[in-house]
Amino acid sequence: MRSKAFRPDVDAPEWKGGYSPYDIIKEGIIAVVVVSILTVLLAIAFGSPDDPSITVKAWSTNDPMDFAATALSELNNTSGTAQYGAPYNKASTGQQLGPLTLAKWVGARIPINTVNDFVINPLKSLPGQPALSSDLSQWSSASTSTRANWVNNYTHAANKMKIVSGQLVVNTTSAGPVPLMMSDLLQMARTGALDQALVTQNGFYTTDYTLPLLFLADGTYMANLAQKQHLTGDQWGMMNETGNYPGQAWLWLYTFWYQVSPMNSSGNGDILVWGIMMVLSAGLLLMPFIPGLRSIPRKTRVYRLIWREHYRDVE
Amino acid sequence: MSTTEIDRQWTTRLRRRVAGKLPPEKLLPDTQPTYVASWIYVFGVTTMAALGVVIVSGCLLALRGPQWWHTSSVGHFVNSLHLWSVEIFFFAMVIHLWGKYFMAAWRGGRALTWMTGVFTFLVSIATAFTGYVSQSNFDSQWISTQAKDGINSTGAGAFWNVLNTGQMLMWHIVLLPLAAVVLTVFHVLLVRIKGVVPPFEKDGAEVAQ
Fold this sequence. Notes:
The complex is a heterodimer of chains A (315) and B (209).
Chain A: E1 3-5, E2 19-21, H1 24-46, H2 56-62, H3 64-75, H4 102-106, H5 114-124, H6 130-141, H7 144-157, E3 162-164, E4 167-169, H8 178-191, H9 193-199, H10 210-218, H11 221-228, H12 252-257, H13 269-285, H14 296-300, H15 303-306, H16 308-314
Antiparallel strand pairs in A: 3-4
Helix pairs in contact in A: 2-3, 2-8, 3-8, 5-8, 6-8
Chain B: H1 3-8, H2 10-21, H3 24-27, E1 31-33, H4 42-63, H5 68-71, H6 73-102, H7 111-132, H8 138-153, H9 165-194, E2 206-208
Helix pairs in contact in B: 4-6, 6-7, 7-9
């Protein structure tokens, strides 16, 4: 028989002390009953939040200027989605962790063309609109440079964009079909038809809300509502939910990193936080093998509190 | 058929291996070491009980489909049961985790038990997250559009699209719960095989190998 030095943070001696009765089935059933009762009491006392989802219809009705400005940003490729990079397009490198451009390496696997997906294709789905059909044909047959000129001219004139009698008004005569297209898109949105058009581009049945959610996120309407519900990142919003409910409290450490520099201001904040959390999670997972960290329980002696009856008996 | 031939069968060998590792008195013990005498031990079984309530309430929610709870007071109550059982589950699980950390519960060949526990915790976080983005209300709209940036920054968003509600719902009700339950069963079996970690004794003692 050979022996080696006892490693107190790795080894545990065989228990040679006493045993006491233990009814594991009874314990399990009591736990289920107690947790069930507690759950029912909490559900009766506090319920659960269910703030209705917002729609493009509500957005364009309640804040038509924000909707119009966002739609224009999709058309002139300045929106958050248009400039996002992978997985939606190749407009930017995306976030970087040092030299690692992880998103770019994977590529644009959920391709989104904001001009076509958010503006042109939904407008094409509108029936019985001769003037719009004519303008869309003009758009389709124009060269890339002509389209760019129209959009640029409209963008410059849009500084004085206004809503008159529910109609979007931008005073320009050199923007080709763009003024009518944008005005019709606003009208389409206010009827609720744009909500439907955004989710049905890939067919009748769908459960994919990528397009309408990205469109909503490009505007400020949803963010303003979230701000009022203490849900934004600088409000520790990632662990909150609407109303006064505990939300995902277990994400407190993940949310914490978004409150401190440089993650709270860096364009690479998300990947920095994910990098930190991956390292910390790996550390927790591999704790038994990390010298120093695995010694903390023994050195802090919190175990004396947990096993106080045992130590009282043996000492 | 000879005895030797029976001994070589996969079934025979597996049964003997399982019976050797986990005899009935270990699987369903009727005694426990006297040092297992603290309220901290309650939180392991509480976590499992809460997981059971989470699964039952989730199955009730599934009966009438994902939109039911928005339009029915009964459905909303079932959703409340699901929410609060999840909160109890995480509360108990985190205390269980910290308790096991301060016991250094990986000692004595229990590293895999610790690791399966931590992995179950991480999978549970992902399971809860997919539930939050599958609610089909304002919460899920906001949480998914914010969370996409974190997931996308790792490159995983190209395959795991948090804005695809159908994909998230399927992960929430099938794949991740399955993983959490399998991990939990494995974790508990390891606890039963290895037993509960004994208290720290004096440093520097010798152990026989």
